[in-house]
Design a protein that fits this description.
InterPro entries: Cell_Wall_Dynamics_Protein, MurNAc-LAA_cat, N-acetylmuramoyl-L-ala_amidase, SH3-like_bac-type. The structure is a single chain. By secondary structure, this protein is α+β, with helices and mostly antiparallel strands. It folds into six domains: 70 residues, SH3 Domains (SH3 type barrels, Roll), CATH 2.30.30; 68 residues, SH3 Domains (SH3 type barrels); 63 residues, SH3 Domains (SH3 type barrels, Roll), CATH 2.30.30; 72 residues, SH3 type barrels (Roll), CATH 2.30.30.40; 70 residues, Roll (SH3 type barrels); 172 residues, Aminopeptidase (3-Layer(aba) Sandwich). The strands form twelve sheets. Strands 8, 9, 12, 13, 14 and 15 form a six-stranded antiparallel sheet that branches. Strand 43, helix 5 and strand 44 form a beta-alpha-beta unit. Helix 5 packs antiparallel against helix 8. The radius of gyration is 32 Å and the shape is globular. The protein starts with a helix and ends with a helix.
């Protein structure tokens, strides 16, 4: 009996000791966890507790860092979120208890107070866009109190981020900076002589806009002197009867260029040519590094030197478009070494390929325009002088037309502009006008259908490439629906050297604007870079850069492929601009130049 009692007590104490040991072990383990946590940084600590603020009215929050990931929800303007991390151009945030991703180009730092600080200013601002909305506060979420128009000038009161407060007929109101030409006493601008011009034609129409469809405001006679305000796409903005008006640049001779100020000795050339030596050279509107960027030229291109000023050279870098390039990136060639001998063209004709083609008095872009011809007109070719063709006009007189912009028929060979290169010849290029048929794409604020605009731009680009000898394939040439798989298949089946998908963009925030180019694979990036840079320079639209984008026609494409968004139809002003024939032509010319540059 005693043995049994001792045995029972022994078992009891043994079990109690085991229990205490387990409890002690649990306590030690729990302390270890706490200690480990104390020395382990939280995810948010990696970003120093940073936060971001949404910069657009509505922004998609996605489950991963890319456009192909599912949408978790939407964030609204000025909402702030904790920043957890960053991957390329995507930011990871804490969103409703889970992790989400947003595009960093649509956010700002939450502690960036620059957009909320009003800076007092003085001076004048001139409106550069018709129908510009005036708002009650600095942002698109504020109410519209009126509209102002191109050429009107108002006093500046203050600035807030990208918005400026003006004294308007509706009281103090705010407008977006991009649509203003500032003349503020708070900014030191380089002084420049007032630009003047002389009208070179009789009864020249003065129009309300830079198109032949603009209203005729009046006429000016030959010899009239005008004040030049700006130049755009072959048109000159002038001051006419106290208001802004437009006249074709063919009828205005810039007198400022021929003045000889003591600080800027100008010299006219006599037909010499300049060969571009830099890989890519910026064309500016004035002979200085402070001049606006209006285009680009590339290595190997050759241009007639029209004028020189302090190591800068004026050239015609595109048909009807003039600008200045830095002379230290040029190789000067004397006219005698570059011009070809005159050559008779018996039995040959030329066919005009562009409406409004200039026919000049002599073989130079400086020569007076004696007549204009439209596409399809045919003229007898008399002789070839350098790259120009002397033709017989309908009244029996003669004139000269640039040989590289007409089609030669008969014994004469087709003329290519010297130095322009023909790197796209025999290249297979697939052009993909986005959407079509039952798929309209986006619809602009004024009702513009993206699918229609895509096709127009694609056809212009196709024409340029075909004329340069490229093998061009359009994924669609009419308003038809083409599946994405078929678009990609046309690229692989034809062994495309380049695939370009053309689109126009849209977003809920109507203030967003600009062009973006996308690629998916690394081997596609150089194509995106070259085409984007040339197109941005030609169109002069806001440059949003080239970046990686997860689009089907890129991701599933084994060829070098890019997708280009040529502007925002959701922005009323940009919709009107990108729909114009001038912009369409500029966009097509830019993409063409980018392809030429890429294949060189």
């Amino acid at each position: 009996m005693l043995y049994c009692v001792r045995l029972a007590f022994g078992i009891f104490f043994c079990e109690r000791r085991i229990f205490l040991l387990k409890r002690k072990a649990s306590t030690v383990f729990f302390c270890f966890i706490l200690l480990l946590a104390a020395f382990t940084p939280a995810v948010s600590a990696e970003t120093g507790g940073a936060a971001i603020k949404i910069a657009v009215d509505e922004l998609n929050v996605r489950s991963g860092p890319g456009l192909s990931y599912p949408i978790l929800g939407k964030a609204s303007r000025n909402e702030e979120y904790q920043l957890l991390g960053q991957e390329n151009e995507w930011q990871q945030i804490s969103y409703k208890g889970e992790q989400g991703w947003v595009a960093d180009w649509l956010t700002t730092a939450a502690n960036d107070d620059s957009s909320s600080v009003n800076t007092s200013m003085s001076g004048q601002a001139t409106i550069s866009e018709d129908g510009l909305r005036v708002r009650s506060g600095p942002g698109t979420d504020n109410s519209v109190i009126g509209t102002v128009h191109r050429g009107e000038t108002y006093s500046i009161k203050q600035r807030n981020g990208e918005w400026t407060q003006l004294e308007t007929p509706y009281g103090l109101g705010w407008v977006f900076n991009d649509y203003l030409q500032m003349d503020s006493s708070d900014h030191e601008e380089p002084s420049a002589a007032e630009k003047t011009g002389t009208i070179t034609g009789n009864s020249v129409n003065i129009r309300s806009d830079s198109t032949t469809g603009g209203d005729i405001l009046g006429k000016l006679e030959q010899g009239s002197t005008v004040k030049i305000l700006s130049e755009k796409n072959g048109w000159v903005e002038i001051s006419f009867s106290g208001q802004s008006a437009w006249v074709s640049s063919d009828y205005v001779e810039d007198q400022t260029a021929f003045s000889s100020p003591s600080t800027d000795e100008s010299e006219l050339t006599s037909g010499n040519t300049a060969l571009i030596k830099a890989d890519s050279l910026t064309v500016r509107n004035t002979p200085t590094l402070n001049g606006d960027r209006i285009g680009t030229v590339t290595k190997g291109e050759s241009f007639t030197m029209l004028e020189e000023s302090n190591d800068w050279v004026k050239i015609e870098y595109d048909r009807g478009a003039f600008g200045w390039v830095a002379g230290w990136f040029l190789e000067r060639q004397h006219a005698s070494s570059t011009q070809t001998a005159e050559k008779p063209l018996s039995g040959s004709t030329v066919t005009i390929t562009h409406d409004g083609t200039n026919i000049r008095a002599s073989s130079s872009t400086n020569s007076a325009v004696v007549e204009r011809a439209d596409a399809g007109q045919v003229f007898e070719a008399i002789r070839l002088e350098s790259d120009w063709v002397e033709i017989k006009l309908t009244d029996g007189s003669t004139g000269f037309v640039a040989g590289w912009i007409v089609s030669m028929n008969g014994q004469a060979a087709q003329i290519e502009k010297r130095g322009s290169g023909n790197s796209v010849k025999n290249k297979t290029i697939v052009i993909d006008p986005g959407h079509g048929g039952r798929d309209n794409g986006t619809t602009g604020t004024r009702g513009t259908l993206e699918k229609k605009l895509n096709l127009q731009t694609a056809e212009l680009l196709a024409a340029k490439l075909k004329s340069a000898g490229a093998n061009v394939i359009l994924t669609r040439n009419s308003d038809t629906y083409i599946p994405l798989e078929s678009r990609v298949r046309s690229s692989s089946v034809n062994g495309a050297d380049a695939f370009i998908s053309i689109h126009y963009d849209s977003i809920n925030d109507r203030s967003v604007r600009g062009m973006t180019t996308y690629y998916y694979y690394g081997f596609q990036e150089q194509l995106a870079s070259d085409v984007h840079a040339a197109t941005a320079a030609k169109t002069r639209i806001k440059d949003r850069g080239h970046r990686q984008g997860d689009y089907y026609v890129l991701r599933e494409n084994t060829q070098k492929a890019i997708l280009i968004e040529l502007g925002y139809l959701s922005n009323p002003a940009e919709e009107m601009a990108v729909s114009s024939p001038q912009y369409q032509e500029a966009a097509a010319a830019g993409m063409y130049e980018g392809l030429v540059r890429y294949f060189k």
